[in-house]
Write a structure and sequence with these properties.
The chain contains two helices and four strands; from the N terminus they run E-H-E-E-H-E. By secondary structure, it is of the alpha+beta class. It has one domain: 2-Layer Sandwich (Alpha-Beta Plaits), CATH 3.30.70. It has a four-stranded antiparallel sheet with strand order 2-3-1-4. Helix 1 runs antiparallel to helix 2.
Length: about 100
């Protein structure tokens, strides 16, 4: 398994309970397919550089994961259709 860093942005309009549920659901997408989440960092609410789906603010979250390719493929598929996630980016972690 390779190490990856995943950054995603949730809608700012979610209340705390909805945001925690959405974050848990994102992590479950990874762990259900064999990935291990080693660290979760919440950057919090920030202003976006440009509007995304008519949103000007977003809640940033960063995950450090060890994952096989299959877990990332399924994560991509499910996250694309999740209406609470505005954007996400997966990069290889070189640490």
């Amino acid at each position: 398994m390779k190490k990856y860093e995943i950054m995603y942005i949730l809608k700012a309009s979610l209340n705390d309970e909805e945001r925690q549920t959405a974050m848990k659901r994102v992590e479950e997408r990874l762990t259900a397919n064999g990935a291990e989440v080693s660290k979760t960092t919440e950057w919090g609410l920030r202003t976006l550089a440009y509007e995304i789906e008519k949103e000007t603010k977003g809640f940033y979250v960063i995950l450090k994961v060890n994952a096989p390719k299959e877990a990332l493929d399924e994560f991509n598929r499910l996250t694309r259709i999740d209406h609470n996630v505005l954007r996400y980016l997966i990069t290889v972690d070189l640490d």
